[in-house]
């Protein structure tokens, strides 16, 4: 009897030990994997960030240092006045004011109008809603250049060339992508909320304003940021529609500056950095809303 | 059936009021221009003086008498064919790395995403500097490994790879899209697979990948449409010329030159319709192929 | 304070689904009507048509004699409480309750006065400045109630307002709603799944099935005199027992069991020609009694049954057994100790049974009277 018991006990112990070994093994394996992963990611981050560092570093160098071979990784001396020189070398303050004006108008238009349209598609039942929304989505498939040329014709017939109208006005008529994004978000708001407000006596316009807008704030932030980014970085629109240098935006100004500076990389990099800076700052403060926009996209399709 | 306006019909009307901005915008900026450009593609329209019907002349000339048309089409296809598989695979790979429990993962995600929000002339200038054969970072880094870097933007064979390289830098945008969808995959699927004895790779191959196919599909469709429209970077980095030796003369850039430099608007609009048809056919093929490999869980909304 | 009437109301969805057919109802001022029925029978649809959230496909709906079909919800002067409360998450409790008043352009101090009154009535004074997220389920429900009472609407609609609460809170809120109704006397229509709510709160119950009204009546009336087998089975828990059989020689014969039928019941069954026909007999579990001691064992109405399961529910014990091949549940006092497998004698209180036409499922009434509906 005893012998059997001892043997059984031993077997149990062995089993426990082998299980321990198994889990230890998994543990070390997992740790190792995680370490490899970490190293990969860290190396990749350096790779990803190096262009930005290069931009900063070049922008601070003297032209002589830029031209030395092999190139230096750190600026030997930090020429902060490169930035002042750059800013003064072209009417960057005019460009900046112009860009801010256009961008603000575009953001306001995009946020309000797309929210309005999306509310209609999400919460007001009407005939043909499904088909019209399908059309909205399908317009995302149309290559921009197909409509660009006739739009140019339209705007030139309206005498809008060399004004901001072609850059700003379309933002007040909705964009398929933003409508889609906001509708996606509206769909998460329970219909009962809208119905309760209807019974309380609110019209749809009132409901949109007092309930729709406040409840979709996060998605509106996403739209604001995406449209900010779009307007700020828009190069093609200004290139096509603006002729007077006094109307130029930063993107266009930078392109002209590039022609003037030839290969004065330190000034060019300083200018680029100045133009990119608002976007970088916005990104670090409102990263959440960038990511949310992407989540809404991936959830939608 | 009551014919008078009851409140449900009133509500329907309100719905149209909500989407009115989109309807107006759609007619003015999309449908109208589409119709106009289709009609004008059969004319010798030049925006100012002439608009005579020329039948299929524009299309015929494009296909038979215009070498640059073929060059631009070749360049564009080259870019699309290489950049899309690379960026898609890169984004999936990166999101798999970033979907792990590694210290500092949020920080890494931010870093990898950053380049995706940067765009416009500033970024192109940065890459012109990075790819500068003498003073740029890329060839310097290649030099550390004893690899002689090519002349990138000055060598017709290397301009398109240069642009693809640049595109890869901003692969973080797609990465977030995939990451969002990977995080939506139920943990219990992985647990079930582990019990069935699947290795990490098998889990990735047989669970993660199938579960994110809808997003892969979405990404491929949208980046194909986007890829065919490459313009800004080529314009800025070749000073609007498409050189060297037309190696950066992409389809849209050529169209741009036809439309806004030689004001051959009818011809350019014919080009735009060819692009539209190409993109449309590719999208349709994509949609048709989708059921074979895209895995939709449950019913669609 | 109002009287509402629905006449031949139908609701079709997409021309295919008929969610409500021929709905007729007339509600007196101050009544508390409860709509019950299985899931998907059209209760919410009826309520939403009254609220104006769904269009009435055909038929008429009046409030105080005024046709309402084409009046938008905001002009119907109704209030509604939703199952998931539908509180505006970005507004405080105060603002939630004040919303409808603001829209109706009430004066500031009037709004304040009314909201505070309602808050006092519902014990929400301390919570007025919180957002809904910071409230418990019961408190949210109270706010939803408060929101609907501040406006003094003519008609009060509630769609399963308590179904998201736990049992204890539900009990408490049930009493509170009843109290509120006692005080305000607003005409109310209340939808629920819960029979207890229906039985305790209603002045009249409406039982629906597949979009059709099965019976309308006071709770006791519906319980005691179900119009058909569906109502008999739906109202009451545990459910009414049904046995298929036929009348032979003054006895109801279920397979090999014979039960004497009292003469008064025999009389009208005979008069209406049901003798020998297929019938269904319905008896509530509490009308099946346990015979003790065995001295009555010889009686015809005592049935020897083998108990399969015995369930103690508190004051009562449920005894599951078979009558022939048909299931039978008896509800007896819990002091009686019966264990599964035991053979006991059960007897039916035949004065309380109902007979139904087996095919149509309709109860056979003592007098050949016209059907009393509405
Ligand atoms: N918008 C709609 N479109 C099509 N059919 C609908 C719609 N709303 C409800 N129905 C159908 O109408 C019928 C009645 O639905 P209703 O919501 O009124 O049921 P209910 O009695 O409230 O059920 P529950 O107790 O589950 O809430 C159901 O069969 C439902 O599927
Ligand atoms: Mg319901």
What does this structure look like?
The complex is a heterotrimer of chains A (301), B (301) and C (374). With 301 residues, chain A is an all-alpha fold. Chain A has helices at residues 2-60, 63-67, 81-89, 92-123, 129-139, 144-157, 165-168, 176-186, 191-200, 204-215, 217-233, 236-241, 250-261, 265-300. With 301 residues, chain B is mainly α. Chain B contains 13 helices and no strands. Chain C is α+β, with helices and mostly antiparallel strands and 374 residues long. Chain C folds into 2 domains: 4-233, P-loop containing nucleotide triphosphate hydrolases (Rossmann fold); 238-373, OB fold (Dihydrolipoamide Acetyltransferase, E2P) (Beta Barrel). The longest helix of chain C has 18 residues, at 167-184. Classes of the chains: A mainly alpha (301), B mainly alpha (301), C alpha+beta (374). Chains in contact: A-B, A-C, B-C. At the A-B interface, helix 1, helix 4, helix 5, helix 6 and helix 10 of A face helix 1, helix 3, helix 4, helix 5 and helix 6 of B. The complex binds adenosine-5'-triphosphate and magnesium ion.
Note the main sheet of chain A. none
Number of strands of chain B: 0
- Named at the architecture level, the CATH assignment of chain B is Orthogonal Bundle
Strand content of chain A: under 5%
Mean pLDDT across residues of chain B: 90
* Name of the CATH homologous superfamily of the largest domain in chain A: MetI-like
The CATH homologous superfamily name of chain B equals: MetI-like
The total of beta strands of chain A comes to: 0
Rg of chain A, nearest Å: 29 Å
Helical amount among residues of chain B, as a percent range?
over 70%
Which geometry of chain B do the CA atoms define? globular
Report the order of strands and helices of chain B. HHHHHHHHHHHHH
Q: Which residues of chain B form runs of ≥5 with pLDDT under 50?
A: none
Q: What class, by secondary structure content of chain B?
A: mainly alpha
